[in-house]
Design goal:
With 232 residues, this protein is α/β, with parallel strands linked by helices. The protein has a single domain, classed as Rossmann fold, CATH 3.40.50. 38% of the residues lie in helices and 19% in strands. The chain has eight helices and seven strands.
């Protein structure tokens, strides 16, 4: 159920983990900015280098696409107020069981230095259904369970899902109101979110899709499932 009385962390360390260098901006950027505004130190990890496919601005395959996306991610992260960004460098689109423990160990090592009170990532279905997304969500869940930490899982409501056209992969349904634990109003960040999305020019087509969905929403709400492994 939606917990309207849930208090967001303040003056703590938060570790946000995503698969690709734009997943934060296209997803829970409002939450990230809110957490930063509350005095938290937010750190980000991107598991892959985002080098798959083409540069959506030029329409060409580029050997340095991963490096360009890293620069975009760093620029947008610091624009949001993120303290530090880590890139694990795994190949985009190739996350699988064979890499599960390798990725887990690298994230766990960073988490050991940061000692986050909360993790932030995509919900178990990966929001868009991208395999890299739900792989990352599972790894974060595994680490959080071992470290006894809380996880905020960014998700879409059923209504928000209606605003997004079908993607090139299976795009799962959004969540019912009763399934969502936290609804965060980030309307005050609308203009900033739009600027953040436009930073990612190598993913301009995907960015336009996100911008279109934002324009259809009267008030920007970011939804989260919350699981506290410290109580399990």
């Amino acid at each position: 159920m939606t917990n309207k009385n849930l208090i967001l962390p303040e003056n703590q360390n938060i570790l946000a983990v995503f698969a690709h260098p734009d997943d934060d901006v296209f997803g829970p950027s409002g939450m990230i900015m809110t957490l930063c505004q509350k005095g938290n130190q937010v750190f980000e990890i991107f598991v892959t280098n985002g080098d798959a496919g083409t540069n959506q601005k030029t329409g060409k395959k580029e050997k340095d696409l991963g490096e360009k996306r890293k620069k975009e991610a760093q620029k947008s992260a610091f624009f949001m107020g993120v303290k530090e960004v880590f890139f694990l460098g795994f190949a985009d689109g190739f996350l699988s069981n064979n890499l599960y423990h390798d990725v887990s160990e690298k994230i766990k090592k960073i988490a050991g230095k940061i000692n986050p009170s909360v993790f932030l990532t995509y919900e178990p279905r990966g929001v868009s259904g991208h395999v890299d997304h739900f792989f990352t969500s599972m790894v974060v869940s595994f680490i959080a369970s071992k470290l006894k930490k809380k996880v905020f899982y960014y998700c879409l409501s059923k209504k928000q899902r209606e605003f997004i056209k079908d993607y090139f992969i299976f795009f799962p349904e959004g969540y019912e109101k009763a399934e969502i634990d936290l609804k965060l109003n980030v309307e005050k960040y609308r203009e900033k979110k739009e600027k953040l999305i436009k930073i990612h020019q190598t993913q301009v087509k995907d960015g336009k899709r996100v911008l279109e969905s934002i324009k259809k929403q009267r008030s920007l709400i970011e939804n989260f499932l919350i699981r506290d492994f410290s109580n399990e």
